[in-house]
Amino acid sequence: MAAAYDIQAVEKKWQDYWVERGTYQVDNDDPRPKFYCLCMYPYPSGPAHQGHVRNYTFGDLIVRHRTMHGYGVLTPMGFDSFGLPAENAALKTGVHPRSFTDERIAELKASILRLGSQYDWRREVRSHDPEYIKWSQRIFLRLLDAGLAYRKKAPVNWCPGCQTVLANEQVLADGTCERSGDVVVKRDLEQWFLKITAYAEELLADLDQLDWPERVKTMQRNWIGRSEGAEFDLEVQGRPDVKLRVFTTRPDTTFGMTYAVVAPEHPLVDELTTPDRRDEVRAFVDRVTLETEVERQTTEGSLEKRGVFTGSSVVNPFNSQPVPVYLADYVLMGYGTGAIMAVPGEDQRDWDFAKTHGLPIIRTVEPPDDWEGEAYTGDGPAINSEWLNGLDKERAIRKAIEWLEEKGIGVRTVNYRLRDWLVSRQRFWGCPIPVVYCPDHGVVPVPEDQLPVLAPDDVEFRPTGESPLRFHEGFLNTTCPIDGEPALRETDTMDTFVDSSWYFLRFTDAWNEDMPFSKEAASKWMPVDQYIGGIEHAILHLMYARFFTKALADLDIAPKELREPFSRLFTQGMIRLGGTKMSKSKGNLITPQQFFDTVGADALRLHHLFMGPPADDVDWTDAGIKGTSNFMQRLWRLADAESDAVPIAAESVEVEVNRAAHRLIARVSDEYERWSYNTAVAACMEFTNYLYKQGKTEFAVDSLLLLMAPMTPHITAELWERRHPGEHIHEQRWPEADVTMAAEETVVMIIQVNGKLRDRLNVKPSIDEAEMEKLALESPKVREVLDGSNPKRVIAKPPRLVNLVV
RNA sequence: GCCCGGGUGGCGGAAGGGAAGACGCGAUGGCCUCAAAAGCCAUUGUCCUUCGGGGCGUGUGGGUUCGAAUCCCACCCCGGGCACCA
Q1: In the predicted model, is pLDDT for residue A199 greater than 60?
Q2: Furthest-apart CA atoms within chain A: distance in Å
Q3: Which positions of chain B lie under 7 Å from any protein Cβ?
């Protein structure tokens, strides 16, 4: 009688073994070729949910698979442990965010351990660890020193719910906060920014070299939003001292300008407004600037283009005609120059505005004859444009820019949609921005030997809308590092995306006490060879991390040649329950815990792999897990050294069984490379069914276990040890298929008549076209269908298919 | 509105222009058992069938091809991203 499969004992045994043995710990002088596999470090929100399980299952599978291929795999893990939920909890319960966070880390870590995914925990980082804070702050100061961090008063996105400002990236398209869902309002505040725009061009260009999902790259390209065009000055009639600069991507259409528009926030608004228009303009500006983004956006639509005439006119430099200047809220101060020339003939927004305000429309590009639309933005010969007439769009643009540059009126420019990254947050539970404000010296960085600047513990959490740091006298009052006179500390903390923008570098050198990481360590492991995480980070985290990597390389902190942090990216699909995303906030979590206790981690992991293609969203159902759980039991009975549930293969079929095993190795190896894990699992199940029928061989069972080792590490380790005492499956080499053994002895040839399947025959793989045709014509089933007629044409694709066309 | 994905049995899904539905769940039947559970074996797209087999079938309509779930065009539906960026 064979031993039963004691899931809990087996999984515990190997989880302890891997840690004690340090199977998945790597040192920086590891002689094996390097492979850096990283799962996005999690925000600690309590016990793992299915999204974590899915993520870490893929990651662990890659770690173990690569290890079996002889790589020294760096597999670190940590916690993105600063963030709002801990602080919100503190407001409600009074529990300090640190203890709240530490508790949740412990819970999450415990479930990660039970999943059996392996990390080099010696390298663990936590964003809220004073060591980590110290290096985040040093990096901030280096950015400040290099002019990449700066302060600026700016209209910022203020979330009344979160009581903090948000980055543009954190405001949803409908003008609400991505976290709380509150309507975001604009406020003018002094804020810290990081100059990500300095890297706009490189961030865009380097996307081409990344092995990332196309849609993530597309999202980033759209976000950066590069557009080429020209900037030029418009003279204001009767005001030789004032010039209005506009940006356009279509300088070829300038002859069609029938008015100009400036944003309500434009600095020249007062200059441009004539006394008789003052009251109306002021009323319009007040209305627009006090509105929320949402209100401002609800005015979108063809007939509602809102604006007001300033009373001034500017001169079209191409034809010297004066045109009126309007204020309109469809022109944004934050993009280009905050002013445009309006060409209604070739821009739908301008068209709508012109119609609403009774302004003339002149087409300067000939639309196609069958054109029935309004503004025409396509290509065509220029018309009504004097010296540009007849030229196509591209040539006209070039000529128009040349003309502007010759005359010294304007220049070719490139604009980006990307804005600088607003990083200051009026929150407590984040990394303090390490500067002080001195009455005499202004903004003074805290000297590096005084880092980290840590938030005090004895603060009171009150829903005041301001950071509790503001009211802590001991923290707030300090002295100026330059003159020793009284000064005030910065009380804002950094966006938590700052922490996650360099953690992957800290992992390479987590013990370093002198600097965030050494260039040697970063050179050894970077870039990350495989990064795995959710699609929701397609823009924010992945863009910031790319920016940091480039900036740190330029600041001589990271290796100079390190321009990109993540060579390959895989974004897993979301887990849904009944059509909606499974998440804590939606309250529809199915925790993995119950499955650890019943079917075990291996069956749960396998279920995640089997559910569907890794990149696809999946609907969670409890039912399916029975299949992988059964399979584990079936595998145990097949492979346990003492089990006789499956007989040894008869001598007559032994070779064929081994040949099938070689085919399995070839197939599954390929499927691992292609991330086709659901079919890899299917192949293993199919092969198991086959062995139940045909009988097993040593080679077949060993191969099966090796191929499954990265997917179901515990059961395969146990079975391997029982079959090969003293050996560890995860220290074995990945099996290789023998090509001649894997080749099929006979294949099925299908015979079609007019593309319809009529017969199938077993043939040798070496069969030639003539032989195929002969066999096809001899088939009784084919003869019946042909009914005496001769095929007009024969298509033979040896050895699998022949098609007779009649 | 624009840009990406995607629509295949009762369900999750497979099929790299050449056998549609691998594998799994569910369901049905059998073996084992005093019985049940577990296990093992078989059947399972749909309609017709004289049980040999035959017709139909991958969102809809067209097309390319000897051959289309797969490629092309148009449309419908679902999911995601962007959205006054001049």
Answers
A1: yes
A2: 109
A3: 3-5, 11-16, 18-20, 22-26, 38-42, 54-55, 66-68, 79-86
